Amino acid sequence: MSQNEDVLLQVTPGGAAIITLNRPDKHNAFNADIIARLSDIFDILRSNAEVRIVFLRGAGRSFSAGADLDWMKAAADWTRQDNEEDALGLARMLHRLYDLPQITVALVQGAAMGGGAGLMAACDIAVAVKDAKIRFSEVRLGLTPATISPFVVRAIGPRWARALFVTGEAFDGTFAHQIGLVQHLVDSAEDLDDAMEHIARHAFDAAPGAVRDAKALVDMVTGEEIDDGLMRKTAHKIAERRVSDEGREGLAAFLDKRKPWWVKN
């Protein structure tokens, strides 16, 4: 792993993957090359059964300032079709992140603007410094947060998404925590490492297949009417888990007062 790369990937022997946006001089703004690199990394991690948790962070003072200015300038001269294909690359990258079977965690300090805030929303968990500066800034540029919108709306709901999308108002980590974009707050960037360790401990206590299915379960029931059909679907899902290798092992370990095989120590 070269420290000169714009995106760094570290996989620890214990099963944690750490992805670092590595353009601190640009506040980790991203362009088409970085989006492609992130997409490739997410594809690699998806098939790595040894990885149990994925952390996404930014080098330097910021998490990510969103789109790179030179990339945005170039896009202004592209055709509508060129712009649509380019935007689709971002949308697909975010979906690959959202759809990973592992627990995903954004570690946020400094600026998280536009697409940077979209990365937060696409993760399962976001940890932010209290004074982090977050903004869906697109309307200030005559644009809309289109590609990140599905993930943001799922994270904070349509009411807050509409309010923050149409005003482009900046808010801090504390406010992001209040509206559900952030799950855990820390006082300083230095405290993010402690948060990593805390969340990783929980991740390694959880069965990896159950984590994958729990994430899919949320998508399955969100927005659905609680009727007999949904109850049957959920009953089917828990029955599958009970007879799975992990389900049988988890119950046996509990009854035997031992740790199941997926717990590292």
Q: What percent strand? A: 5-15%
CATH-derived architecture of the largest domain: Alpha-Beta Complex
Number of domains: 2
CATH structural fold name of the largest domain: 2-enoyl-CoA Hydratase, Chain A, domain 1
Strand order of the largest sheet: 1-2-3-4-6-9
Largest sheet: 6 strands, mixed
Low-confidence stretches: none
CATH superfamily of the largest domain: 2-enoyl-CoA Hydratase, Chain A, domain 1
Rg from alpha-carbon coordinates: 19 Å
H/E element order: EEHEHHEEHEEHEHEHHHH
User: Taking all residues together, what is the mean pLDDT?
Assistant: 96
Overall CATH class of the largest domain: Alpha Beta
Number of helices: 10
Q: What is the total tally of β strands?
A: 9
Helix content: 40-55%
> What form results from the Cα inertia axes?
globular
Cα-to-Cα separation, first versus last residue:
28 Å
Return the structural class: alpha/beta
